[in-house]
Amino acid sequence: MVARSPVSDASMTAIHRASSAMATHASARVESRHAWFSDLAADDRSWIGVIAQDGIRSFLGWLRHPSVDDSRAIDIFANAPRELARRITLEQTLDLLRTVIEVVEEEAPQHARAEERAAVREAVLRYAREVAFGAAHVYARAAESRGAWDARLESLVVDAVVRGEPDESLGSRVNALGWAEVRGVTVVVGSSPAGGESSVVDPLRRAARHAGLEVLVSVEGRRMIAIIGPVTDPIEAATTLAGHFGPGPVVCGPKVPHLYAAGRSARDAIRGYEAAPAAPQLPRPTRSDDLLAARAVAGDDKARRALASIATGTLDVGSPLGDTARTYLRTGSLEGTARELFVHANTVRYRLGRILDATDLDLTDTHDAFALRLAIMFADLEAGRRAPRPRGDVGL
């Protein structure tokens, strides 16, 4: 719908002739009034000048042919590069527009006929409203595009971390996501809640921001992987976000120094998550190291080696703690262990305490007892493989 212009051709011509001077005055006022302008790079300052000129030119076109659904208010941003929306905020853009409109409101009516000046001022105010809506539209569109791009970057980074195969592009992607300086990282794995990806991931992001954490998230089918930092205690960070995962186990890997080392944490967390159904008694979330026994049963060689290292030395055959652990695991009681070892029950109780201090496993707990039984078995198997063959044993 096109309305009739409120000013005559003569006034339009006069205002048009003054448009370059108005743009120059507007740019000067922006520079003098807004401190953030001087902090911009020279290229960005020049683009703001272009926006001011386009805004005035667009206003003149709108004034000649007013339209209810005209898109000129949005088009004044068309020539500026998209990156400019990243470097100046919506608030700064509105400050810029207010300053330009202020200059146009002061100067444009002076070049119109006396009886048309009020109409020009009213037109300026109406157009200012359209420009404000146009700026909001541009920033909303940029935010939507940036959000989709950031989500894609996140997915690529998480995938590279999980695969443990970083390529030369990982560094630039990490920098783009603002993770280059994040120190103290853990990876948390759980099931993905029902719903679309945005409805699943956005609440997790909000919870992380509220807790002062950064998070990179990837939904892979029914599994959701979150890289979290900066963390001091991985289980504390995982507990903060566990409610945003789907039902079932939530497993966090060990803390690593930075994102580039997060592959170790991711592999442990994923292996723990896959083995977690074998240890339903463990809390949610749980550490991947608390699932060493289940992981070893599931075929995780790293978990088997970790268990063997727990028993090696401390619980070797013939050592007081080793004999106590083996006997207690076989008898299941303090008294039975004490009788077999010819020691007092309090001595057995003391040794069990020392075993707990040395291995972080409590033999009076069934889960820990099973883990320590496996640890001793794997350590003995490894010792057997390293033992020298008797003379004359040439094998098959």
TrEMBL record:
<dbReference type="InterPro" id="IPR025736">
    <property type="entry name" value="PucR_C-HTH_dom"/>
</dbReference>
<dbReference type="InterPro" id="IPR042070">
    <property type="entry name" value="PucR_C-HTH_sf"/>
</dbReference>
<feature type="domain" description="CdaR GGDEF-like">
    <location>
        <begin position="164"/>
        <end position="271"/>
    </location>
</feature>
<protein>
    <submittedName>
        <fullName>Fatty acid biosynthesis transcriptional regulator FasR</fullName>
    </submittedName>
</protein>
<dbReference type="Pfam" id="PF17853">
    <property type="entry name" value="GGDEF_2"/>
</dbReference>
<feature type="domain" description="PucR C-terminal helix-turn-helix">
    <location>
        <begin position="323"/>
        <end position="376"/>
    </location>
</feature>
<dbReference type="InterPro" id="IPR041522">
    <property type="entry name" value="CdaR_GGDEF"/>
</dbReference>
<comment type="similarity">
    <text>Belongs to the CdaR family.</text>
</comment>
<dbReference type="Pfam" id="PF13556">
    <property type="entry name" value="HTH_30"/>
</dbReference>
<dbReference type="InterPro" id="IPR051448">
    <property type="entry name" value="CdaR-like_regulators"/>
</dbReference>
